[in-house]
Amino acid sequence: MTDINNPKDELTNAGLRVVAFSGNARSNFLEALDLAKDGKFEEADQYIKMGLENLELAGQAQKDFFTNEAEGNREGLDFLAIHAQDHYITTLLLRDLINNLIDIYKK
């Protein structure tokens, strides 16, 4: 069980939120692309919107993660930091690629 008053637990929680929200955003973006392939652009736009909301939550969690880490609460969390960053950055890239692909489908 995590203790929200424990700095290490706070850091772990923030890192896991980055991974979870980025993963949700990734799923939203991929669903949007599938819908766009079928010409369902309004539905695709809704999934893009959900993805952006999840990505914003991931960005806030990333900020929390780095704030905690900057305060020195990073004992044994190097893997989590790398994993969280990987999820977040690849989802940012996926967002850009999928938005461009959907624009192509719309033409």
Task: Provide a concise account of the structure shown.
It contains three helices and no strands.
Describe the structure.
With 107 residues, the chain is mostly helical. It is 84% helix and 0% strand. It has three helices and no strands. It has helices spanning 7-37, 41-70, 78-106. Helix 2 runs antiparallel to helix 3. It is elongated, with a radius of gyration of 16 Å. The termini are far apart.
Radius of gyration over C-alpha positions, nearest whole angstrom: 16 Å
First-residue to last-residue Cα separation: 51 Å
How many H/I helical runs? 3
Mean pLDDT rating: 86
Unreliably modeled segments: none
State the shape. Answer: elongated
Q: Biggest sheet: strands, sense, closure?
A: none
Strand content: under 5%
Secondary structure class reads: mainly alpha
* String of helices and strands: HHH
Helix content: over 70%
Oligomeric description of these chains: single chain
Beta-strand segment tally: 0
Outline the secondary-structure elements:
Blueprint: H1 7-37, H2 41-70, H3 78-106
Question: What labels would you give this structure?
Answer:
elongated; 84% helix; 3 helices; 107 residues; mainly alpha
